[in-house]
């Protein structure tokens, strides 16, 4: 990302454009988040799992008899997770079992990621020909965007061919920033009907686009199906931070993009309504979700996006 401040800016913007249009994923380096902070986040996250979550996960596996399964498990993910909310209100001080140092470092980490998310959204706006800040405003609602981190560990799995680390899905929200383990792989994306590894790269942040950006761009950018493959050894750490619309934000294709295309493909809806639908259909195709939202879009009040 440092190339954005050099004569290579245009070429770098072109790379981002290609990634958004053809992949739905890209990996950023030199993103301005210091390596020391990332190393501390990784160390404390792995330490917290070992101390507070590993035993619980083993007990869950034993209680369900998962070590001895003989057929594919289709309704369970081989992961140990907890959630941190950052915006509009943080819950970091209330999450149990976190040491003070970990709370403090995760708060700092979230602040850096929030800035990076907003910087990236403006780069997307620039590539799309939208005014700076358009997507952030579209996400705003009455209380600003929602932003939170899913902290996951994917322990070694005795039957990786029968249990997925995380089943295939697209992300419901806006832009997702993932800090993943650089030693244990597992993340894959679907491209041209083939599963492709997203390689772990030290100190990088993996970016992927959620369903809301597909709607706002009227399909110019697409959310992409991805999954996590469980591994027979090694414990994979994954911190996925979701920069999403506010719950009452009304999401719809950007009028400027429609003027160029003259064809509305995507519905207009309140983000919270989409999330309620997504909760039950996460591991299914996204297209029926968009169709279901079309059926109720006439009830949505389409006020113009307020300037923040």
From TrEMBL:
InterPro entries: DIOX_N (IPR026992), IPNS-like_FE2OG_OXY (IPR044861), IPNS-like_sf (IPR027443), Oxoglu/Fe-dep_dioxygenase_dom (IPR005123), Plant_2OG-oxidoreductases (IPR050295). Residues 145-245 form the Fe2OG dioxygenase domain. One of its GO terms (biological process) is ethylene biosynthetic process. Its cofactor is Fe cation. Signal peptide: none annotated. It is an enzyme of class 1 (oxidoreductase). It catalyses: 1-aminocyclopropane-1-carboxylate + L-ascorbate + O2 = ethene + L-dehydroascorbate + hydrogen cyanide + CO2 + 2 H2O. Belongs to the iron/ascorbate-dependent oxidoreductase family. This is aminocyclopropanecarboxylate oxidase. It comes from Nicotiana suaveolens. The gene is ACCO.
């Amino acid at each position: 990302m440092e190339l954005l401040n050099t004569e290579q800016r245009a070429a770098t913007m072109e790379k981002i454009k290609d990634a958004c249009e053809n992949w739905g994923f890209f990996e950023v380096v030199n993103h301005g988040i210091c390596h020391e902070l990332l190393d501390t986040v990784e160390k404390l996250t792995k330490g917290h799992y070992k101390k507070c979550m590993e035993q619980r996960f083993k007990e869950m596996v034993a209680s369900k008899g998962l070590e001895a399964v003989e057929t594919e498990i289709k309704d369970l993910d081989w992961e140990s997770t907890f959630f941190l909310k950052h915006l509009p209100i943080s819950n970091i001080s209330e999450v149990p079992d976190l040491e003070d140092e970990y709370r403090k470092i995760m708060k700092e980490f979230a602040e850096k990621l929030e800035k990076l998310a907003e910087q990236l959204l403006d780069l997307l706006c620039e590539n799309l020909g939208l005014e700076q800040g358009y997507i952030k405003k579209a996400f705003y609602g009455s209380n600003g965007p929602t932003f939170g981190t899913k902290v996951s560990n994917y322990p070694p799995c005795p039957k990786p061919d029968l249990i997925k680390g995380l089943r295939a899905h697209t992300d419901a929200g806006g832009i997702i920033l993932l800090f993943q383990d650089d030693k244990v792989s597992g993340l894959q994306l679907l491209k041209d009907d083939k599963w492709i590894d997203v390689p772990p790269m030290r100190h990088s942040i993996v970016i992927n686009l959620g369903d809301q950006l597909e709607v706002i761009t009227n399909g110019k950018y697409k959310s992409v199906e991805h999954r996590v493959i469980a591994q027979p050894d090694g414990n994979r750490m994954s911190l996925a931070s979701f920069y999403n619309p506010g719950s009452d934000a009304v999401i719809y294709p950007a009028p400027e993009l429609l003027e160029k295309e003259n064809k509305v493909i995507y519905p207009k809806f309140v983000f919270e309504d989409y999330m309620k639908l997504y909760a039950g259909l996460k591991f299914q195709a996204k297209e029926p979700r968009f169709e279901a939202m079309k059926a109720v879009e006439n009830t949505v009040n389409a006020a113009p996006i307020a300037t923040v």
